[in-house]
Amino acid sequence: MVHLSDLHATEPSWRGTVAGGGKRWLGALSWWGRRRRRYRPEVLEALLPAVEALAPEQIVVTGDLTQLGLPGELAAARGWLERLGPTSRVLAVPGNHDATAATPDPASHVWDAYLRDPAAPAGEAAFPSIREVGEISLVGLCTAVPTALLDATGHVGAAQLARLEATLERLGRAGRTRVVAMHHPPESGVTHRRRALHDGAALRGVLRRVGAELVLHGHLHRTHRGAVAGPNGPIPVVGVASASRQGGEGVRRGGFHTYDIETQPGGAPRIAWRTHRWDAASRRFEASRPERL
User: Fold this and answer.
1) Distance CA 220, CA 279 (A)
2) 0.90 exceeded by the pTM?
3) Residue 110 — very low, low, confident or very high, per pLDDT cuts 50/70/90?
4) 206 membership: H or E segment, kind and range
5) Which of 105, 47, 60 is closest to 214 using CA atoms?
6) Among 7, 31, 33, 224, which residue carries the largest CB count within 10 Å?
7) What's the per-residue H, E or C state across 120-157?
8) Residue 111 CB: number of other CB atoms within 10 A?
């Protein structure tokens, strides 16, 4: 399995920015100032064959495919997802940049087939979404909501949390290996309050009661390894750096992660992960040695 995040793969239009209000103005200034030199299309072009060569069973994209969430950007990001793989092999969740002011509900935009469970009945709530891959269940959460100026917080919401708890409980009883994918980190204290998950405590309560085997996220633009409490011990939490970043040192180097998950009948799965970090000199992604979670 491959995990990507924070691709910032689109170029916002000036006309759309003018119509988008203060938050988009500020985002546009940031993009045309320094961010467009940091998040590079040539890194993304190298990413596509690098991921394809790994032949992953599933690719998880945890948000921020766009800069400002403009309609044209959402359509362009859909094209990028199509290049990455078919809807049966790619699961996406939106990030805060994909849900800026005046953006339509993330559950209804043009990525719909990549966001939703393809087997879900029409009209059913989009999140949490579920993808079944062998004995693994990928569970996608939406934390992306429109926010005020200088605010990049996330929110899951009571209704989605209730559905998540029921979903994780059902999958746990069935002996499934549950991997939760979201944009904002679920942990407390790993980012500034203006970038944190507002109802993170409630989400951690759900995970503490019913459990999961792994939580993946983006948003921090750095590799991050942590944990939250589960009913049978700590649940590993792993954040990935921006997939398109050129430059950056250490945990902030751009790249993606891969996971090999070996399910164990009646026991915890064995999970090995690797970082694949962009090397500007060789213009390729360099893989680390595998580590156990």
Assistant:
1) 20
2) yes
3) confident
4) helix 200-210
5) 60
6) 7
7) CCCCCCCCCEEEEECCEEEEECCCCCCCCCCCCCECCC
8) 23
